[in-house]
Design goal:
15% of the residues lie in helices and 42% in strands. The protein is mainly beta. The chain has 3 domains: 110 residues, Thrombin, subunit H (Beta Barrel), CATH 2.40.10; 111 residues, Thrombin, subunit H (Beta Barrel); 91 residues, Roll (Pdz3 Domain). It is elongated and about 75 Å long.
Length: 338
């Protein structure tokens, strides 16, 4: 009994330490509509002698010491509105640095009048998540409860859902992390944190009509975005530089191919299928090759080449399994040029 109490106390202390470390990185993102005067009700605010009607708010977290903030794109996608960041009880202007509307990810730049070193989260690895592991969410709930903390477990992986957005219609989400940690309106864009204190996801939505089903976007695409922005000031999208078709049963039959999966680098007399100076050319890929796998992951209609390259950064090494003349080859490519 005493051992159980001690373990429980140790676990509680660890959670408290994780929360204390990450709380200073959490921001509120206000969606505002400019108005001519301050109206006498709770949804209007004044910022630096400007008046706004508060339309909504979401959460975000600081990822770099110079103030890059990660959040969801859908709460900040209405270009008719103004967005302000509330951090440390102060409002800041922000600029949209990068967004990925397909994956619902946005990076904002917090704009400060003076040079400031901001506290940051630690980005983890969403590929090493286990069902049942403890996770923590932090966010700003229902427009009024700032930095609300909840705890739960990872209750599902690789979830696919469709959701209706106010401004962008139906959104499709793939590969989501499911958790029973509370995710409420205003939580969108906040961090999902593991017991090592690392952010492994961006809390995105809760499933309506049921209890305790929240969903988060895995953090790995964000790691590439932040790394590229810090290194190059822009996103570097890695490409092999090949023209190909994904093989299925029909393609196999049409081209008399030996397999019904993979990416077939096509023969084309009108233009080359291996781009000059590309990674494919530099590493000896040829027309007629079939790329079967990237990093031990099979290529098919549901999982094309682009899906496996989207998280690859300059400096990474990728492994290709190639089928050429009925023989399988392994090719390692050092990504030196995007």
């Amino acid at each position: 009994m005493l051992d159980q109490l001690l373990r429980s106390e140790t676990s509680d202390q660890k959670i408290i330490q994780i929360i204390r470390k990450n709380l200073p990185t959490i921001v509120s993102i206000f969606a505002l509509k400019p108005i001519s005067q301050l109206l006498n009700h709770s949804v209007t605010i004044s910022i630096k002698d400007e008046y706004f009607e508060k339309v909504g708010n979401s959460s975000g977290f600081i990822a770099t010491t110079n103030g890059l903030i990660v959040t969801n794109f859908h709460p900040i996608s209405n270009r008719q509105l103004v967005y302000k960041i509330l951090w440390n009880d102060k409002f800041f202007d922000c600029a949209l640095f990068h967004y990925d509307d397909v994956n619902d990810i946005a990076v904002l730049k917090l704009q400060s009048d003076k040079k400031q070193i901001f506290p940051t989260v630690t980005l983890g690895d969403a590929t090493n998540i286990s069902l049942g592991e403890t996770v923590i969410t932090i966010g700003n709930v229902l427009d009024e409860f700032e930095k609300t903390v909840s705890k739960g477990i990872v209750s599902g992986l690789s979830r696919y859902v469709k959701a209706d957005s106010n401004y962008r219609g139906i959104l499709e989400y793939k590969g989501l992390i499911q958790t029973d940690a509370a995710i409420n309106p205003g939580n969108s864009g906040g961090p999902l944190i593991n017991m090592r204190g690392q952010v492994i996801g961006i809390t995105t939505l809760a499933v309506s009509g049921v209890e305790n089903i929240g969903l988060a976007i895995p953090i790995n695409p964000v790691k590439k975005i932040i790394r590229d922005l810090k290194s190059f000031g822009a996103i570097k999208q890695v490409s092999l530089g090949v023209r190909y078709i994904i093989i299925d049963d029909l393609t196999k039959q049409t081209y008399n191919l030996p397999v019904n999966y993979g990416a077939f680098i096509i023969y084309d007399t009108s233009q080359p299928s291996i781009m000059t100076g590309s990674l494919a050319e530099k590493n000896g890929l040829k027309e007629g090759d079939i790329i079967l796998e990237i990093n031990n992951q099979q290529i098919n209609l549901k999982h094309p080449i682009s899906e496996y390259l989207k998280d690859v950064c300059i400096g990474d090494v990728i492994k290709l399994k190639i089928l050429r003349d009925q023989k399988e080859l392994m090719i390692k490519i050092n990504v030196v040029n995007a």
